[in-house]
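Technical note accompanying the year-one report. For the benefit of new consortium partners, we illustrate the data format agreed upon in the data management plan: each record pairs a sequence with a structure-token string. No post-processing was applied to the example shown here.
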Amino acid sequence: MEAREKTLDYYMSLSYTIEVRHDPESEWPWFARIAELPGCMTEAPTFEELGPMIADAMRSWIEVGLEHGDPIPEPRETIDFSGKVNLRMPRSLHRDLVRRAEAEGVSLNQYMTTALARSVGP
């Protein structure tokens, strides 16, 4: 579909990545953002209110972009990601990672995957 044919309904039908965070200490403890749409975010007092609020924020973000003729990013398909990374690192870091993996009784691959997942967060 060409860019000039893409409507609000088209973009709203796409499967964008919604990232949700919860901070029980906050006045509005529920936060959501659309990963592919910079600055498209909202907060809500309850989880139940978050869905409609992020949908409204997304609709507004896309409407403004269309009105101004700005490019609207589309979600990346999962198929774009192989799950494989070729990573170069200092020998000393490699050594330390191997030692930690051995101490945990897991493979280096599993240890690094877990460590990366923890650094990215929920």
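Partners are asked to follow this layout when depositing records. The chain is about 45% helix and 10% strand.
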